[in-house]
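Comment thread on ticket #2218

A.B. wrote:
> Attaching the input chain for the structure job we discussed in standup.
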Amino acid sequence: MLPRALLLIGALCVAGPGPGPGPGLGLGLGPGLRVRVRMADGQVAEESLEADTDSDSISIEYKKADGTLITLLADFRQEVKIIRSLILGEMERGQSQLQGLCFITRLHRNELIPSESMAKLRQKNARAVRMAEEQRAPQHLYMDVAVNYSKALPLSMHIHNICAEARDAIYTREADAKHWMEKGLDGSMFEILPQASEVTDVERCRLSADRWKPCVCHYSLCIEWYPCLLKYCKTRDDVGKISSYKCGIKSCHRCSQYDYYVPQKQLCLWDEEP
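C.D. wrote:
> Ran it. Output below, let me know if you need it in another format.
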């Protein structure tokens, strides 16, 4: 059997059957966990990780230095991933106090650990500052479909809550919308957005001088640290039979870039030349 001390590498473990995680882990934190994470700019942020096994979903949330709140919600039951950004508006430039964006994509297997495993996560040292073990390839996604907030409940029960501040700015991709429609969802909740290639005078918001003209907005964000895979350890019983059990997690980091149509640059003031 492996020494128990080896099971604490990374100082995170999954409680459950099999050999215990070893002494010194302290009390379990239940379905919620707060993890201190080193950001790309060197600052430290606190991520909140929660699991709801009844709805088979997990959420990860943190606040950036500029006050932007980033939330990832994975709905395993519906195979839906929602990333929400709540951005502090520039009120002196006519924006509302808070501007919300929701990007919805299909959730694929092995993107995140299951909700039941997330609910069992424990950490030895709550003050430790963590960095992801794996840097996953960045994504660049063109969100060419708008999602109707009032009709989106069949897509995921979580949309009405997490996207409430972004009800006019909920986006997905046509390929994902087709996948969900093939599974029986009503296509009336989806609206194809104008393509820059189809409308000759639509340019990137960064290059547009007119705040009231349509343009293609660019937004980028990162999930700095998240549990992406389970780790398994092996043990041998008294008769020599080898079995495996969950003993920890692998952490990942991933950045995403989104391009999407907006009816006016006023809704995309962050996308400007520096």
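A.B. wrote:
> Thanks. Noting for the ticket: The longest strand covers residues 215-236.
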